[in-house]
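RECORD TYPE: inverse folding
INPUT: C-alpha cells
STRUCTURE:
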C-alpha cells in the first residue's frame, strides 16, 4: 500500500468557475485519514461513494474557483472532484504531483531521487534549447530518433 504522502499543485491555465466545473474539495477531509477506496488497474485510487457520503457529514464542500495562474496545493487525502465542463468556456489546468520517494520504488524498483540542478544550469539548458531553433520538447519528438540525434543530444547534455 503506497504511503499517502503526495501533494498536488493545480495551476489554472484558464478561468475555473462553478459554471465550467471547477475543482471541488471537502474542507478538512484530509484529517479523516485514508478513506476506503477502489484501486484502478493503472494505480489510481478513487474514494468510494460511501466514504464520500460519510465525509460530507462532517466536511463542507468548497468550490475552488481560480483565475489563470492561480496555484492550489492539496493533499492526496483531501477528497476532491470536478464536474463535467458543459460550458463553452475551456477549463485547462496544469497538475503537478509531488510524491514521496518511498512510493516511487513500488512502481519503479530502480527509482532514485531526481538530481538537483542549480538555477543557472536550468537557465543554461533553456538557452541551449533556444539556440537549437527554439524547438520545445512538446513541439516535436521527445526522444532522439537517429544515431546522429542521439550524439547531438549527448553533446548538449555534456556541455551542462
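DESIGNED SEQUENCE:
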Amino acid at each position: 500500500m503506497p504511503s499517502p504522502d503526495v501533494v498536488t499543485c493545480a495551476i489554472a491555465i484558464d478561468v475555473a468557475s462553478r459554471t465550467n466545473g471547477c475543482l471541488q474539495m471537502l474542507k478538512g477531509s484530509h484529517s479523516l485519514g485514508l478513506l476506503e477506496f477502489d484501486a484502478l488497474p493503472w494505480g489510481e485510487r478513487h474514494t468510494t461513494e460511501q466514504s464520500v457520503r460519510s465525509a460530507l457529514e462532517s466536511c463542507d464542500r468548497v468550490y475552488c474557483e481560480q483565475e489563470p495562474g492561480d496555484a492550489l496545493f492539496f493533499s492526496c487525502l483531501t477528497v476532491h472532484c470536478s464536474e463535467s465542463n458543459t460550458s463553452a468556456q475551456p477549463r485547462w489546468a496544469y497538475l503537478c504531483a509531488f510524491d514521496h520517494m518511498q512510493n516511487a520504488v513500488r512502481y519503479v524498483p530502480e527509482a532514485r531521487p531526481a538530481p538537483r540542478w542549480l538555477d543557472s544550469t536550468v537557465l543554461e539548458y533553456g538557452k541551449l534549447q533556444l539556440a537549437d531553433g527554439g524547438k520545445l520538447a512538446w513541439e516535436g519528438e521527445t526522444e532522439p530518433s537517429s544515431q546522429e540525434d542521439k550524439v547531438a543530444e549527448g553533446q548538449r547534455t555534456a556541455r551542462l
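NOTES: The chain has two domains: 6-107, 119-159.
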